[in-house]
Amino acid sequence: MIHIGKSYIQRVDGQSRLCADITIGNHRNTLWFSVDNSQEQYLCLGRADAFVMAFLAAAMRGDHELVCEDPMSERLHYQLNCDLIPALSSAIDRYHPIHITAPLTAEPYPNAGAVGTAFSGGVDSLYTIMTHGADCGYPISHIVVYNSSHFDQFGDKRQKMFLANCRQVVRFAGTYGLQAVIVDTNFYNVLGIESRSSVFTFRNVACTLALQGLLSCYLLSSAFSLSTFSLNCDRLDEQHTCARYDWLIVISSFTESLSFYLSGGEIKRWQKIQKLADWQPSWQWLHPCWFNAADKTNCGCCGKCICDLVTLYALGTDTLNRYSKVFNIPDFLHHLPERVAYVILNANSNIRAKEAYHLLKNSGVFIPPAAYVYERQFRRAMEQREGGGQ
Ligand SMILES: [Zn+2]
Known about the structure:
Blueprint: E1 2-12, E2 15-24, E3 27-36, H1 49-62, E4 66-68, E5 72-73, H2 74-91, E6 100-101, E7 104-105, E8 114-118, H3 123-131, E9 142-147, H4 158-175, E10 179-185, H5 187-190, H6 196-209, E11 215-221, H7 246-251, E12 259-263, H8 269-276, H9 281-285, H10 303-314, H11 317-321, H12 329-334, H13 336-346, H14 351-363, H15 370-388
The structure holds zinc ion (ZN).
């Protein structure tokens, strides 16, 4: 059993932490979500919602019942117990059909009526921001950054990358008249090593549920189009992440006062890039890079940079050149055969590469013949590496 104690506020170094003591067997730990002191009223005190969502994947994996002292929003409790947990546990071997026990409340949590979304600088989050301006039904008022999973992959550089992202978000929000909210957590210490790809949406939603004093609507940027929805997630390679069933998590996470929507699921990544290319802010803020901090130029040679650069190239030279502030375009063109080779090589195993290659083939732009030579070399090297590892 995982026991979630009553929530409380702790003030530390200018930050306000929403805390709950978590007991698993003989182990006791405190999970917290923190914001700047001035934003303490945004934290959802007296509800177990955020803590349940943070521990949901771990509880299903470990076959632990979740028992809460604080009340849960009745709607969320019903959706998790009756929809999300049964669906995931019946489709995914490693998840068990656990139950959540909590006092319930149907009382809406009072909030400031804000609409929020996360900003990473990547294609998906920029597309969400572009499509939810003042003329939209859910105009974004707040940009959030969650230190909940994405930055864990950088090890010792985790905090540095998070802070760089925070600086970028504050600059972006200030430029476009939006408010920034930064949420730090200690998920990394309390939840141990979880596969980031399998839990990042749960953690993102948990942070959002912790901000029920602020938000009435949260837009989760979809990494994949809804046409790729899948619960066949026994393997955890790039194509089998929880992003494939984001939509199910999102529609199961509503409370009486907070709505969740999946943004961008209606189109493919390359189509988002095509639309972004006509939105001037993206020329300055696009930052899909895996490795370089958000306030630095994109590296241009990681998997995400390559796929997006090849997509921009396939959309035409004018489109590619619009991004000269954020990518080193001459360097990309100098290495064009290798970059195209990467996309061809990965087209069968990576959706971004598959889309980029498909667009490239159909766009009629020049594909350097050397790309196919490099692709064969890369493939041989990969096969030798795999063979050597057996
Ligand atoms: Zn990169």
